[in-house]
Inverse folding.
């Protein structure tokens, strides 16, 4: 998983949305890797630690300055903005719950949260680029509302779910890695 130079436009795009989403207190680092988080099928990954307001965004090496990648960057930044909600779920709502129920809760929450973050990133991109062709014309959401959940969980959810118990146990709670 070698790291490569981050294009200037990526740093500028992250800085722009960091400001717009009022995340100026966050220290966000941007990286480029062949396999973000060791996952060759992942476009990007966001890791964050809420209690020190620090996040690391890692994007796949084939990143280009286009709508899809801008939406991907925005998607990962939205995970930072949404992090306090994630922390409440992982550190509070699922605390003391049996492992089986915690895994089920983690799966259901992750699927719903990812869908919401994905749709919100598309909406914000479209609002920022009103003259561009709508991604609604080319995406696979089929006009479903925010509450629509896919019929089957994403395959990577199971592997992330296996680590949920250990990752959020203890006094320093960090949010989950979020992949797109």
């Amino acid at each position: 998983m070698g790291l490569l130079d981050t294009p200037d436009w990526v740093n500028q795009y992250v800085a722009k949305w960091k400001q717009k989403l009022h995340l100026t207190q966050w220290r966000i680092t941007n990286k480029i890797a062949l396999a973000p988080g060791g996952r060759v099928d992942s476009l990007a990954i966001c890791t964050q630690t809420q209690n020190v307001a620090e996040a690391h965004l890692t994007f796949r090496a084939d990143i280009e300055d286009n709508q899809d990648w801008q939406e991907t960057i925005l998607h990962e930044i939205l995970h930072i903005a949404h992090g306090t909600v994630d922390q409440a779920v992982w550190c509070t709502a699922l605390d003391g719950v049996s492992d089986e129920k915690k895994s089920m809760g983690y799966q259901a929450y992750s699927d719903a949260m990812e869908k919401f973050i994905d749709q919100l990133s598309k909406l914000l991109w479209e609002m920022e680029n009103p003259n561009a062709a709508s991604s609604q014309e080319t995406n696979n959401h089929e006009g479903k509302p925010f509450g629509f959940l896919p019929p089957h969980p994403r395959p990577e959810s199971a592997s992330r779910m296996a680590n949920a118990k250990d990752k959020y146990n203890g006094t320093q709670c960090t949010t989950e890695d979020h992949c797109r």
